[in-house]
Automatic annotation (TrEMBL):
Tree of life domain: Eukaryota
One Gene Ontology term of the molecular function aspect: N-acetyltransferase activity
Cited PROSITE patterns: GNAT
Transmembrane segments: none
N-acetyltransferase domain mapped to chain residues: 68-260
Protein's name according to its UniProt entry: Acyl-CoA N-acyltransferases (NAT) superfamily protein
Cellular-component GO terms for this entry: chloroplast
Organism: Rhynchospora pubera
């Protein structure tokens, strides 16, 4: 299995007191249960925590069933996101490589990522809630929070899109999906479809007009998934030299797009 480079912004929950110092003094916290996505709006590339868009997008995110909810990743999801990613893309690695891969991913998420001013990056998770209920106490003590069954990264970095004009400006208005992964035991239940639908909602809320991705042309499951969601393969001219995700040499990617 091959994956695009993982560029995820850590979304932090305002309910985590040790992260409060990172919140800008002007940030208001309307709802402690919301997750906060880092948006990059400063010249110095320092991430500022912003809210508002998150609340809107959270309301827009689709849910597959009461048991499976799609939402933006929170700080406390970082390990499960790393585990879902690594178990999906590198299923054959054993100890200690598998652990190192997860740690690498986990640290990347916890540290956050820099991005140019005005760009958005977010990680969506599909959370499967446990069916066990403990007379409401589970909600109070948070011991029935469910587990991350699927992940997806979406951004407006336009890293893998051709630059525009003589000054090679970054393309705007096109969201890019990467690192879509669903745990093996949760596949073929519509989780990836719901994550993609969630990414589309988020992209629309960011003002994007279209959404793009690269997909290994030999990954039948993924190609079918995106085609079934209305993505179309875009023919890239031979000599175009468009940037492509890092992968095993020889991998052929389909560049796929969908208008929003
Ligand atoms: C841009 C990128 O990130 S590309 C990388 C994609 N990720 C990977 O390859 C990681 C390993 N694979 C996975 O994690 C999963 O198999 C995924 C993400 C490809 C699919 O996740 P799932 O939750 O199983 O997909 P979901 O249940 O939503 O299926 C949607 C559609 O995709 C297609 N599909 C999914 N899995 C398969 C499969 N194994 N074989 C054929 N078609 C498949 C089907 O058309 C399916 O619709 P249907 O069930 O109505 O027939």
């Amino acid at each position: 299995m091959r994956s695009a480079p993982f560029t995820v912004t850590v979304s932090v929950s305002s309910s985590l007191p040790h992260l409060r110092p990172f919140l800008s003094p002007r940030t208001t916290i309307p709802n402690p249960n919301l997750s906060f996505r880092q948006s990059y709006t400063t010249r110095s590339d320092q991430p500022r925590i912003s809210c508002g868009a998150t609340q809107t997008s959270t309301n827009l995110l689709p849910s597959l069933s009461p048991e499976i909810v799609v939402r933006e990743a929170r700080f406390d999801d970082a390990w499960e996101v790393a585990d879902t990613h690594c178990s999906s893309f590198y299923p054959n690695y054993t100890f200690p490589i598998d652990l190192l891969l997860r740690l690498n991913r986990f640290v990347g998420m916890v540290l956050g990522f820099s991005a140019p001013p005005g760009c958005m990056v977010s990680c969506l998770v599909a959370v499967r809630c446990h069916e066990l209920r403990f007379w409401g106490l589970d909600a109070v003590f948070g011991f029935n929070r469910g587990y991350v069954a699927g992940v997806l990264t979406i951004d407006t970095l336009a890293e893998f899109l051709p630059r525009k004009g003589p000054f090679k400006h970054r393309r705007k208005g096109i969201a890019y999906i990467s690192n879509v992964a669903v745990r093996e035991g949760d596949r073929r239940k519509g989780i990836a479809k719901t994550l993609v639908a969630g990414a589309e909602s988020l992209a629309r809320s960011w003002g994007c007009r279209s959404i793009a991705l690269h997909c290994d042309s030999e990954n039948i499951a993924a190609v079918r998934l995106y085609k079934s969601q209305g993505f179309r393969c875009i023919r890239v001219p031979e000599n175009a030299q468009w940037p492509e995700p890092r992968s095993i040499p020889g991998t052929h990617f389909n560049f796929m797009m969908k208008l929003l």
